[in-house]
């Protein structure tokens, strides 16, 4: 009977040990884990620097741009430059220089030919070309690979 008691007591001690282990785990989880999780996931709230933001609003940012308007007709180029200048005159962030230009008569004004022609595209940043291409479909605009925009004659302002 004495041996039966010793064997009978052992499962009780193992169950008690498991129960205390579970209780200690839950206590550690709530005492250490939850506060640590709370601290690591809390978003820090700071005041916005409103005075610095207001100063940025008063800062004038200018974008310097050179634009060439190219057509097959010099008079048409000048007229488009005038219209473009009129439409951009109220711009507060764009400082621009627009000039009229024409291409040599032997060059066809088609995007395919002009894209393949070396030496006629802008080489510096901030320089753009607007090229009137009569061959383009009505009201069509194409952006070229060399800061060049090709547009048809019927594209409105």
Describe this structure in words.
The protein is 45% helix and 20% strand. It is an alpha/beta fold and 157 residues long. It has a domain at 60-151: Rossmann fold. The chain has a 5-stranded mixed beta sheet, covered by helices on one side. Strand 1 (63-71), helix 3 (74-88) and strand 2 form a beta-alpha-beta unit. It is elongated, with a radius of gyration of 38 Å. The relative contact order is 0.11.
Q: SSE order in H/E notation?
A: HHEHEHEEE
Structural class: alpha/beta
- Strand count, sense and closure of the main sheet? 5 strands, mixed
What is the highest CATH level, the class of one domain? Alpha Beta
Percent of residues in helices comes to: 40-55%
DSSP strand content: 15-25%
Shape: elongated
CATH topology of one domain: Rossmann fold
- How many extended strands? 5
In round numbers, the mean pLDDT is: 80
Query: Radius of gyration from the CA trace?
Result: 38 Å
- Count of helical stretches: 4
Distance from first to last alpha carbon: 107 Å
Low-pLDDT residue intervals, each spanning 5 or more residues: 1-5
CATH architect. name of one domain: 3-Layer(aba) Sandwich
Strand order of the largest sheet: 2-1-3-5-4
Concise summary:
The protein has 157 residues and is of the alpha/beta class. It has four helices and five strands. A hairpin with a 4-residue loop joins strand 4 (141-143) and strand 5.
């Amino acid at each position: 009977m004495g041996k039966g008691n010793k064997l009978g007591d052992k499962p009780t001690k193992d169950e008690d040990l498991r129960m205390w282990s579970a209780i200690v785990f839950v206590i550690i989880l709530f005492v250490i884990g939850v506060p640590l999780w709370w601290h690591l996931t809390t978003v820090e709230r700071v005041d916005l620097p409103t005075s610095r933001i207001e100063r940025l609003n008063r800062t004038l940012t200018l974008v310097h741009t050179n634009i060439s308007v190219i057509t097959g007709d010099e008079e048409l180029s000048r007229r488009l430059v005038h219209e473009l200048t009129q439409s951009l005159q109220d711009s507060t962030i764009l400082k621009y220089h627009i000039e009229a230009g024409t291409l040599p008569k032997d060059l066809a004004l088609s995007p395919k030919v002009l894209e393949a022609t070396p030496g006629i595209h802008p080489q510096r940043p901030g320089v753009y070309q607007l090229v009137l291409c009569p061959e383009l479909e009505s009201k069509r605009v194409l952006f070229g690979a060399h800061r060049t925009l090709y547009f048809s004659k019927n594209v409105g302002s």
